[in-house]
TrEMBL record:
Taxonomy of the source species: Bacteria, Bacillati, Cyanobacteriota, Cyanophyceae, Nostocales
Stored Gene3D superfamilies: Vaccinia Virus protein VP39
Protein name: 23S rRNA (Adenine(2030)-N(6))-methyltransferase RlmJ
Biological source species: Amazonocrinis nigriterrae CENA67
Length: 288
């Protein structure tokens, strides 16, 4: 399996908000650009100890996370009856939350085994007829779909490098912005490991030419040690952000609430028992 990031801190500040957004918004269609696999067996790695296993050990500290759709879905798996041992990727989380209420699912990935695995997982849930698989460049694939999408649809864009241009000169951020300007519901996740990388991301945000009255809401979480340039440990990612657009006021309010709970649950934590694992956050708006 090529994907190794499951259950790490980046998944925490991705899947908790995503699951709640999907449950609230109930989209007619769900499109995911970088799907990877639907489920993973946890290995108990140090990165997972700081990620999902830290959440599990400290879940009593946050009633909001404990009551979240994310936590309920993870705990509904029979393999997790005696503790979290299996982790679900975003395709499986979306399929479990939306099920037959969503008319169409579209999963992109450049690795065909990922899509095959999603198809096998979907069949277990008796969800096959409304699922479409795209083994192709998801930037171009998403751009080609936008005209047919509506305000009832939800896109989940999850590439890590959001400003990197493909051979056609387009980026994930370009595709996301085009969809947001059309009124499509959406969430974009990205990562960074240094303040320099974070600043470069924000320069890309500021380079937008405002052509609509819409805006994006952004919240980033990051290690309090982001500026320390620590190189002997790596929790998976030192910081990551989410941009959302065209979601309901209920989702927007939850977004602001849940980041405080994530920050709280990491108070007093450590990274690999060596450095402080505490987090901080920044929120912002982007006019598009």
């Amino acid at each position: 399996m090529s994907y190794k990031h499951f259950g790490r801190i980046g998944d925490i500040w991705k899947h908790i908000p995503l699951c709640q957004f999907l449950a609230i918004e109930k989209p007619a269609s769900y499109i995911e650009t970088n799907s990877a696999y639907p489920e993973y067996q946890l290995t108990g790695s140090l990165e997972q100890e700081y990620g999902i296993l830290h959440i599990e050990k400290n879940i009593q500290k946050s009633q909001l996370i404990q009551a979240s759709v994310y936590w309920k879905v993870l705990n509904s798996i029979s393999e997790n009856d005696h503790g979290i041992s299996k982790y679900l990727g975003s395709p499986a989380l979306a399929l479990n939350i939306l099920r037959a209420s969503t008319e169409k699912f579209v999963f992109f990935d450049i690795e065909e085994p990922c899509l095959t695995s999603i198809a096998e997982y979907a069949s277990k849930l008796n969800l096959t007829s409304q699922i479409f698989y795209k083994n192709e460049d998801s930037v171009e694939g998403l751009l080609n779909m936008i005209e047919e999408l509506s305000i009832e649809d939800f896109i989940h864009v999850d590439p890590y490098l959001i400003h990197e241009k493909n051979p056609h000169g387009n980026s994930y951020f370009d595709a996301f912005i085009k969809a947001m300007r059309k009124g499509v519901k959406g969430m974009l996740w990205y990562g960074f490991n240094t303040s320099k990388e974070r600043n470069a991301l924000h320069q890309g945000f500021q380079g937008l030419t405002n052509t609509s009255s819409r805006s994006l809401q952004g919240i980033e979480i990051m290690s309090i040690l982001l500026d320390e340039n620590i190189s002997d440990v790596n929790p998976g990612v030192w910081g990551c952000g989410i941009l959302i657009g065209n979601l309901s006021d209920v989702s927007s309010k939850y977004f602001k609430q849940i980041v405080l709970e994530v920050i709280k649950i990491y108070q007093g934590s450590t990274i690999f028992n060596k450095y402080s694992g505490e987090l901080k956050f920044e929120d912002f708006q982007i006019q598009i």
